[in-house]
UniProtKB/TrEMBL annotation:
<dbReference type="Pfam" id="PF01261">
    <property type="entry name" value="AP_endonuc_2"/>
</dbReference>
<protein>
    <submittedName>
        <fullName>Inosose isomerase</fullName>
        <ecNumber>5.3.99.-</ecNumber>
    </submittedName>
</protein>
<dbReference type="InterPro" id="IPR013022">
    <property type="entry name" value="Xyl_isomerase-like_TIM-brl"/>
</dbReference>
<dbReference type="InterPro" id="IPR050312">
    <property type="entry name" value="IolE/XylAMocC-like"/>
</dbReference>
<dbReference type="InterPro" id="IPR036237">
    <property type="entry name" value="Xyl_isomerase-like_sf"/>
</dbReference>
<feature type="domain" description="Xylose isomerase-like TIM barrel">
    <location>
        <begin position="32"/>
        <end position="271"/>
    </location>
</feature>
<dbReference type="GO" id="GO:0016853">
    <property type="term" value="F:isomerase activity"/>
</dbReference>
<keyword id="KW-0413">Isomerase</keyword>
């Protein structure tokens, strides 16, 4: 059983790396590399968790003093990945239990592609699924986070593509455990993103940091932080201004980073975040 002291100072942004950034490494290699660079969080990727085992993962993360900033992902409720809706819901409920055991900050949810449904039907299917999963998540104390995906690279992953439609779905489902993920790769190049942040922050469970040299088109292609056209500094400044104190999780995948070793990617990410004084506060 955990014991929490009310005298602790409020936690500030946990700096984390998503395991998708080091996909070819083992779980043990991920943990050692992240912790050695002073990151205090890890975004856990479910296939890696399944391969390594839940109990071993909990033990390893405790030894390294790494908290789980996210577990990704569940979803596909529209059948776009070939599963029936009931199967996708059952999988999500299983992941809720894993997230609870990991004490994960949030469980990431992808809606699924529109999959030849009319948009209203796809939206209704998603909301019904979220109602059911959120009920279980509330029992386990797990937060769910719906992630909007840029349509240029995510049609098969999600029909929810922008912050406004994400907030509309959150309002419809009306669960205290449902919020959103803001991935700067998917929404950061929208000129309106900074204007939306004051409305988003109250529902924001996780910020994923990604950059790109052009708008998403086809496969996801992120570049090193600061090398692209996403206004990361402005976004971080605005999040700080509106008192976002949740995790900041780096997620870097794609051709533009494949020329770099994982060690180079992690070192660059750490250095980038260290150059954000007064905007990024490590817990």
């Amino acid at each position: 059983m955990d014991h929490f002291s009310t005298s602790k100072p409020p936690r500030k942004n946990t700096l984390a790396i998503s395991q998708l950034s080091t996909l070819r490494w083992s779980f043990t290699e991920d943990v050692q590399a992240y912790a050695s660079r002073g990151f205090s969080g890890i975004g856990v990727y479910r296939p890696k968790l399944e391969d390594f085992g839940l109990d071993r993962t909990i033990e390893l993360l405790a030894e390294a003093n790494l908290s789980v900033t996210s577990l990704s992902w569940v979803g596909g409720f529209t059948g776009s990945d070939g599963r029936a809706t009931d199967d996708a819901i059952a999988d999500a409920i299983h992941a809720v239990r894993d997230a609870a055991n990991l004490k994960a900050e949030t469980l990431i949810v992808l809606a699924g592609g529109q999959n030849n449904h009319i948009r209203n039907h796809a939206r209704r299917t998603l909301c019904d699924a979220l109602h059911e999963i959120a009920g279980v998540a509330e029992e386990f104390g797990v937060r769910l986070s719906l992630e909007p995906f840029h349509p240029g690279c995510g049609d098969e992953w999600s029909f929810v593509n922008d912050l406004q439609s994400t907030l509309d779905i959150i309002e419809t489902v009306n669960s205290p455990n449902l919020g959103l993920v803001l991935d700067t790769y998917h929404v950061g190049m929208d000129e309106e993103v900074v204007r939306w942040l004051p409305d988003v922050v109250p529902h924001l469970h996780l910020v994923q940091l990604g950059d790109a040299k052009h708008s998403p088109l086809g496969e996801m292609n992120r570049c090193l932080l600061g090398d692209g056209c996403v206004p990361l500094r402005t976004i971080l400044e605005t999040l700080h201004e509106y008192h976002y104190d949740g995790p900041l999780e780096v997620e870097l995948i794609g051709e533009d980073v494949e020329t770099h070793s994982y060690d180079e990617i992690l070192d660059h990410a750490r250095n980038f975040l260290d150059r954000m004084p007064g905007r990024v506060e490590q817990r």
